Amino acid sequence: MNELFDRDILSGEQFTLDEIQTVMGVAHDMRRRVAHGTHLDNCHGKVLASLFFEPSTRTRLSFETAMLRLGGQVIGFSSAESTSVSKGETLSDTIQMADQFANVIAMRHPRVGSAHEAAAVAVRPVINGGDGIGQHPTQALLDLFTLQQELGDFDGRTIALVGDLRHGRTVHSAVEIYKHFNCRLILVSPEQLMLQRPMVESLHKSGVAVTETTDLESALSASDAVYMTRIQKERFADPSEYEKVKGCYVLNRELIMRTNSRIVVLHPLPRVDEISTDVDDLPGAAYFRQAQNGVYVRMALIAMVLGKA
Ligand code: NCD
């Protein structure tokens, strides 16, 4: 059986390099088979519970597409208001109920640690699709998959992570994954939104070369890829703090052409104003391809935890 069989996927930290490489390999295989039009039935007779207590477009739809492409079926909800949570049901009860209906649970919830809480009560594997400002491990794996696709190889590369590094859960998971590679990271953010110190220290400890700056232009010139992120408005307790940093970094075509015309541009999406639409038709603009890769990586993860890869 594969290494992820019957396991929860909760954080970037849980993965060994071997496991990451296995997921990448299975995802490549899924991508090839979908591209060839192969009919897959790995998960025939299996049900995914897709429980989204917090807004989502890509993550929810790509988990659901992944299960459908594997020949399985999907149940779930896309907002807590439409469920018994609005009657006061606890997360633990909702999860224990879904556990009776489905073979695997994908979930998103606004509270840090919620996916761990769910995994503690569920018999079925739980896959974390984002827990507040905590973790978003499937996004980090699809980001890595995309970087490998776009750059050919990730080792030895320099990636600029830009924007709200303090609240961005995709970045929090990504740094855990990137620790296993020989890469350089340039962290670009306003002072208020820097990556938390323990995460920076742990990157240093694992041998990743990290620099921190507020200057996007110099970071672009020095990088092979740039990972733009949205300022996470919904995570600010004080709206006036958000007003101070909103719109702080905007990547547009002119800036790319001036600093590094070959740079690969990623973004977990949704974007607000961090990437101008005039970037979209540059060859390096990879964010919609990145979203598509989410389906292949989630196909790999679902099939692996169900022992059907
Ligand atoms: C991200 C998220 O929800 O953390 N989106 C996603 O999953 N693709 C990023 C964001 O909302 O800014």
UniProtKB/TrEMBL annotation:
<feature type="binding site">
    <location>
        <position position="269"/>
    </location>
    <ligand>
        <name>carbamoyl phosphate</name>
    </ligand>
</feature>
<comment type="pathway">
    <text>Pyrimidine metabolism; UMP biosynthesis via de novo pathway; (S)-dihydroorotate from bicarbonate: step 2/3.</text>
</comment>
<dbReference type="GO" id="GO:0004070">
    <property type="term" value="F:aspartate carbamoyltransferase activity"/>
</dbReference>
<comment type="function">
    <text>Catalyzes the condensation of carbamoyl phosphate and aspartate to form carbamoyl aspartate and inorganic phosphate, the committed step in the de novo pyrimidine nucleotide biosynthesis pathway.</text>
</comment>
<dbReference type="InterPro" id="IPR006131">
    <property type="entry name" value="Asp_carbamoyltransf_Asp/Orn-bd"/>
</dbReference>
<dbReference type="GO" id="GO:0006207">
    <property type="term" value="P:'de novo' pyrimidine nucleobase biosynthetic process"/>
</dbReference>
<feature type="domain" description="Aspartate/ornithine carbamoyltransferase carbamoyl-P binding">
    <location>
        <begin position="7"/>
        <end position="149"/>
    </location>
</feature>
<protein>
    <recommendedName>
        <fullName>Aspartate carbamoyltransferase</fullName>
        <ecNumber>2.1.3.2</ecNumber>
    </recommendedName>
</protein>
<feature type="binding site">
    <location>
        <position position="169"/>
    </location>
    <ligand>
        <name>L-aspartate</name>
    </ligand>
</feature>
<feature type="domain" description="Aspartate/ornithine carbamoyltransferase Asp/Orn-binding">
    <location>
        <begin position="156"/>
        <end position="304"/>
    </location>
</feature>
<feature type="binding site">
    <location>
        <position position="108"/>
    </location>
    <ligand>
        <name>carbamoyl phosphate</name>
    </ligand>
</feature>
<keyword id="KW-0808">Transferase</keyword>
<feature type="binding site">
    <location>
        <position position="139"/>
    </location>
    <ligand>
        <name>carbamoyl phosphate</name>
    </ligand>
</feature>
<comment type="similarity">
    <text>Belongs to the aspartate/ornithine carbamoyltransferase superfamily. ATCase family.</text>
</comment>
<feature type="binding site">
    <location>
        <position position="230"/>
    </location>
    <ligand>
        <name>L-aspartate</name>
    </ligand>
</feature>
<feature type="binding site">
    <location>
        <position position="136"/>
    </location>
    <ligand>
        <name>carbamoyl phosphate</name>
    </ligand>
</feature>
<comment type="subunit">
    <text>Heterododecamer (2C3:3R2) of six catalytic PyrB chains organized as two trimers (C3), and six regulatory PyrI chains organized as three dimers (R2).</text>
</comment>
<dbReference type="Pfam" id="PF02729">
    <property type="entry name" value="OTCace_N"/>
</dbReference>
<dbReference type="InterPro" id="IPR006130">
    <property type="entry name" value="Asp/Orn_carbamoylTrfase"/>
</dbReference>
<dbReference type="Pfam" id="PF00185">
    <property type="entry name" value="OTCace"/>
</dbReference>
<feature type="binding site">
    <location>
        <position position="87"/>
    </location>
    <ligand>
        <name>L-aspartate</name>
    </ligand>
</feature>
<dbReference type="InterPro" id="IPR006132">
    <property type="entry name" value="Asp/Orn_carbamoyltranf_P-bd"/>
</dbReference>
<dbReference type="GO" id="GO:0016597">
    <property type="term" value="F:amino acid binding"/>
</dbReference>
<keyword id="KW-0665">Pyrimidine biosynthesis</keyword>
<feature type="binding site">
    <location>
        <position position="58"/>
    </location>
    <ligand>
        <name>carbamoyl phosphate</name>
    </ligand>
</feature>
<dbReference type="GO" id="GO:0006520">
    <property type="term" value="P:amino acid metabolic process"/>
</dbReference>
<feature type="binding site">
    <location>
        <position position="270"/>
    </location>
    <ligand>
        <name>carbamoyl phosphate</name>
    </ligand>
</feature>
<feature type="binding site">
    <location>
        <position position="59"/>
    </location>
    <ligand>
        <name>carbamoyl phosphate</name>
    </ligand>
</feature>
<dbReference type="InterPro" id="IPR002082">
    <property type="entry name" value="Asp_carbamoyltransf"/>
</dbReference>
<dbReference type="InterPro" id="IPR036901">
    <property type="entry name" value="Asp/Orn_carbamoylTrfase_sf"/>
</dbReference>
<dbReference type="GO" id="GO:0044205">
    <property type="term" value="P:'de novo' UMP biosynthetic process"/>
</dbReference>
